[in-house]
């Protein structure tokens, strides 16, 4: 994206950012609360309009497309708070992820593949999603997004509210998805883990990108160390 600007009710939240995610890359976006990270992801997914700048994806400009056309083009968002339908079953939630694909014959095959990737869910397909643990709901949200066959997966705070061991499982899953060739843009409060996993990272402050670099380099930057890694 180039010079992206997004506002909430006329108040700027993202103030002209340039950001790139290449195929198969894990890119993380870190920054304090209110920096504009979620706003950026929501604008890429088409849930918020751009007030300025351009978003390009797979060689085409997409910032005027409605959200469902972006999903069909290969962009999926796992929103902050997961967006699981608690009164639907695991299976029904997964099916919703595939709605842009109509009645494609490969759907059942994909559901099997995703259940292999997420063995925690395989035996619970008839269970109401609201009765799953937080970690299982996060896995389900990722599985549902994968059913749209994304080439770019946007993940908003996947570790939020989860126990450290479960966070590890989520990050392992993210690594596996990237190895399958899906590009990932990850918004995370857990900067240490996110930078360990990411190929590249961006730091956002006040709606602007203030720092960018390789995942391995950013944790060495004194500003990142003091502001986001709790070091002096
Ligand atoms: P967080 O980790 O708290 O989600 P963030 O970096 O994702 O932080 P955003 O949620 O993108 O930040 O918020 C950026 C700015 O936009 C903040 O000033 C926030 O108060 C404002 N904002 C976010 N959502 C809305 C909304 N729906 N209406 C009005 N202002 C909003």
TrEMBL record:
Span of domain ABC transporter: 1-231
An example molecular function term from Gene Ontology annotations: branched-chain amino acid transmembrane transporter activity
A Pfam cross-reference name: ABC_tran
Highest taxon, organism lineage: Bacteria
Keywords in alphabetical order: Amino-acid transport, ATP-binding, Cell membrane, Membrane, Nucleotide-binding, Transport
InterPro entries reported in the protein's UniProt record: AAA+_ATPase (IPR003593), ABC_transporter-like_ATP-bd (IPR003439), ABC_transporter-like_CS (IPR017871), BCAA_Transport_ATP-bd_LivF (IPR052156), P-loop_NTPase (IPR027417)
Example GO biological process: L-amino acid transport
CDD domains, A to Z: ABC_TM1139_LivF_branched
Family named by the database record: Belongs to the ABC transporter superfamily.
Name the record gives this protein: ABC transporter
């Amino acid at each position: 994206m180039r010079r992206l600007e997004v506002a909430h009710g006329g108040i700027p939240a993202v103030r002209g950012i340039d950001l790139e995610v290449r195929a198969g890359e894990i890119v993380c976006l870190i920054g304090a609360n209110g920096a504009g990270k979620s706003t950026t992801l929501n604008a890429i997914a088409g849930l918020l309009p751009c007030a300025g700048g351009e978003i390009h994806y797979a060689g085409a400009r997409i910032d005027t497309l409605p959200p469902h056309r972006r999903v069909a083009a290969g962009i999926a968002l796992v929103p902050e708070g997961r967006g699981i339908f608690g009164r639907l079953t695991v299976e029904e939630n997964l099916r919703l992820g595939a709605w842009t694909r109509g009645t494609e014959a490969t759907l059942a095959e994909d559901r099997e593949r995703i259940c292999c990737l997420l063995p925690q869910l395989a035996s619970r397909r008839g269970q109401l999603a609201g009765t799953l643990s937080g970690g299982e709901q996060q896995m389900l949200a990722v599985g549902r997004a994968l059913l749209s066959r994304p080439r770019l997966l946007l993940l908003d705070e996947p570790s939020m509210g989860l126990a450290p061991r479960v966070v590890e499982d989520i990050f392992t899953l993210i690594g596996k998805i990237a190895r399958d060739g899906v590009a990932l843009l990850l918004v995370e409060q857990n900067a240490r883990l996110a930078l360990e996993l990411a190929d590249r990272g961006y730091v956002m402050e006040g709606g602007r990108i203030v720092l960018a670099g390789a995942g391995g380099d950013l944790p060495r930057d004194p500003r990142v160390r003091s502001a986001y890694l709790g070091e002096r």
